[in-house]
Every structure is written in C-alpha cells, then in structure tokens.
Amino acid sequence: MGREEEAGTLLENSLASASGKCLYRCVDITNYEAVEREYKFIFNEGELSYAFNNAGVSAGGSLIDIEANMVRKCFNTNVFGLWANLHFQLSYMIHAKKGVIVNNHSIHALRLLFPDVGIYASSKAAGVMLTKAAALEAGSAGVRVNGISPGPIDTEMYQRSIIDNSDANAWPSRIPLNRIGTVDEVAETVMFYFLLRQHLSMDRLLELMAELRVIEFFHPISIQVHHTKCKIIS
To answer: How far apart are the first and last CA of the chain?
Structure first.
C-alpha cells in the first residue's frame, strides 16, 4: 500500500512476471476507514505473513516557526498511520500465531543531530514506542515485531531535507564511510529480519547482534531488536 499511485503501478507491472502475485493499493493511512477496507481486501486475498511499515512524512522547522497543519500531518502519518496498520496486522498475526512485522523509524528517533527536526524526531520516537509495545504484546503468540532506524538514505525525502536544512548537508561527513545509505541496503536489512528465525538460533542471534554493533558503526543504519532483551543502536 502507498500514496504514490504512479510509482506503485510501475512497480506492480515490473513484478508481474515474477512468481507469486503483486498488487499495489493506493491508500491514505491517516484515514482509518480506508485502512480498514484495505486490510479486509488483503485478508480476502490470502495470508498475511510479513509486513513492512515504511510510510512516513518529514516536518522541518523550529518548534516556534513550524505550522500547526504540518505538525498534525506529521503525527497523523508517522504515529496514527503506523498504529492503524499495526492494529490490523497484529490482530491477524496474533490469531494466526505467526508473522513478522518490521517498522521503519529514523536515526532521529534515537538522537537529535541538528535543530529544526524536533517534530519529525518526536513522531519517529513515538513510532519506536509503538514497535516496543507491539513486540511485547505479540511475542507470546509467536509474532516478531522489530524496528530499524536508518540514517540518511538516498531518497526523495533526503534530497528535500538537504535543501530545507543546511545542517543535513553534513550527513556524509558524520559517517565513517563518508556516504549515505541506499534503499537496497534498507531492503536487505528488512529481509534480514524477515528471514532471521529461518537461519539463526537464539544463542546465535545474540552473538550476531554483537557483531552487528561493530558493523553498524561504519554504516548509516541503526538496528534495534525488540523481540529479545538485546538492542543495538548507533
């Protein structure tokens, strides 16, 4: 599901020849009734085993100067919209006693690196708490809920941010690799979480997480693990 209908349709068509079935659905996640309709459609189509909640909007400006409608839009999408999706995903997966959910947050949810991103950072921090709450509520049913907190990723949102906030231009210099991340690297991280249980036992998980703490220092993606007591952040 997403709001960019043209891009979604292109992706749907490009995957049409692959195995399985790909459907793009255009929906405003700030509209609860619209989200509810889409999940009824999804559940009628088949099984929900994996979910990646990636929708988000930015909001730049100081706490004094930012406009009220921008604050409302940011929290409606990044907090209410995330909750609305989790509501239906968890309801289905807990009943099925299986499933994996990955939520996309932001490095700003964990640390405030420069001014004028306070509203965006606050909304993403709220998303982290939703992820932790979901992990606690669904874990006993065999459902895993995790979050990733990327640093700067080469997307349209990032390109807009370096225009709107001069401090964002310094991102590469803050990263030892001296570059920003790519969408493919985020996708690979999400797939790591989706397939984690198929390849690793729990004792191996803790060892791997310790190794990832070192790797993450050189990489703009922060990794959080909410289905165990281990959490790795930058």
So the answer is: 30
